[in-house]
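SAMPLE LOG
Freezer: B-3
Tube label: C17
Construct: single chain, 176 aa
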Amino acid sequence: SPPGLLLLTSFLLHVEEGRASPTRLVCDDRLIQKYIGEAKDMEERADQCQALPTLSCPAVLPLVDFSLQQWKTKSNETKRQEILCDLALLVGAAAGAQGQVTQECGARELSQLYQHANSFLLLLQTFSWEAGPWEPGCSPRSIEETHITSIFLTYRQLVQGKLRFFFRDLAKDLCK
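STRUCTURE (predicted):
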């Protein structure tokens, strides 16, 4: 089964009735480390692809850098909304780039990245929060890139940064 489906399935198997609880994904640090490793692997494989084309239609990527001090002052709901916006932009960028990459090497990695990012997007949309469901329509800080490898770099930085710290913050409440 595709890795994205595996991620979503592992999450859904650990959902409590009435209120989504991503307990295993959040409480088992090995899972997020696995996804960070996979993001690094995808990035390395994409870097090894010969002559990846420059994107004729630039990919709009979220700027995923953040200040840990500022991050700590935000509510979990604000963090979730921010990550959802970043993921939505990243999924769109990966989908757009897929249509421009014909060689198997880059296309395979882009497809995998799309599946993973989309799974995280779906997963975070299913979390139950007081603020209600996620409404698309945010406008995160972004940059236009014509290099396909930038998509992989952005994804790895998002998983390694905001997503990992978000799960760590959730673990404080969920994993007692």
